[in-house]
Amino acid sequence: MIRKITIDQLLPGMYVVDLHKRWFDHSLWQSKFKVRDDAHVSKIREEGISEVSIDTDKGADLPPTPIARINQIEQKLKSLAEIRAAKPPTVSLGEERRRAGRLLNEASNTVSGLMLAAKAGSKVDAAHLEPVVSKMIASVIRNPDALVPLARLKRLDAYATEHAVATAALIIAFGRHQGLPEPEIEKLALGTMVKDIGHASLDARLTAKQGMLSKAEYSIVQSHVEEGLAVLDATSRLSETSVAVVLEHHERYNGCGYPYRMAGDEISLAGRMAAIVDTYDAMTSDRPYRAAMSPSHTLRQLYDEAGFQYDPVLVAAFVKTVGIYPVGTLVLLESGHLAVVEQLHSDNMLTPVVRVIYHTGRQQYVTTPVDVDLSRKIGNHYGQIVRAENFERWGISPLRWQPA
Q1: pTM of the model as a whole
Q2: Is the dihedral of CA 234, 235, 237, 241 positive or negative?
Q3: Residue 200 falls within a domain, yes or no?
Q4: What region, left, alpha or beta, does residue 11 occupy, with left being phi > 0 and alpha being psi -120 to 50 degrees?
Q5: Assuming Cys at both sites, which of 89, 255, 304, 355 could form a disulfide with 143, CB separation 3.0 to 4.6 Å?
């Protein structure tokens, strides 16, 4: 395709077919050529050429604008999320949520006990987590849409323990989606729950700091990986899978992570999975230095970094695991109403059951919340999902409207 652009938009790799200047008004001896490098661009600019035409079939095109890039990613995510390979739940969402609430308290208390022991220099035996990990796996098997959304609801003052539990819930669901055997999923979850035990040795002011960390402070924070493994090695008998999660959850696919700057398949499957769930949960949580991002925004970020920071195949699988509109997400419908995702359909996660709660045009809550199955055309007067929204933007409490 022939596209006319300004000289400021011209980039190396583009194929110029028209300089829009008479041949005797410049000293370039070719009028059709591929731009070699930045120096070549500068040379063309020096000739007083202000615009050119390029052939995108023969060379590079303009990079997409930020908005276009976001829209491209959104469409790819939606195509990934259309079908979720999952077995139907064996227990209702309401019933499993009641169990999951108690289970999360048990898991948080157990992790908190281990972290306090590590801070005091006492014995830290990760085996104490095995019973609660088994219960968490059983919960996800019964209904995967109960434990994970509940685990995402964190208190800022209890982030460390609740992040450990939430990432374990995520990696259990992720492992199930990947078809991993249950013993391997248990090892993944156990490693995920203790992966940040090394934070116990850090100054709490560092992990709670609201501003940017200095280079020296960041180096100290990075030490939690090896500090944690040293604590666990001394008192726990961890499997190779669990050790890989602890050591590698901050490694990145392009080799820019820490502590060993491993890249690609040098990072174990456990480490690559842990990196994704750790990032996803951190980004969707409130932190002292920033507010939480929505799940859909976070997935766009992960997808944009697929092949760079994260394993692209695993990122695609993770999108299919959680869906771009997880249970508990606030969404805007075509009618202008806001709704909370109540339940996902295993065959199409883009048309969940939602509870309509708010009218954006009138800026008020609806008189009576209405449950709507977006997969059914009959009885749906609200249309489909336009996008995810932030609860904070509309002054709506996410705790109040979590599915029962």
Answers
A1: 0.75
A2: negative
A3: yes
A4: beta
A5: 89
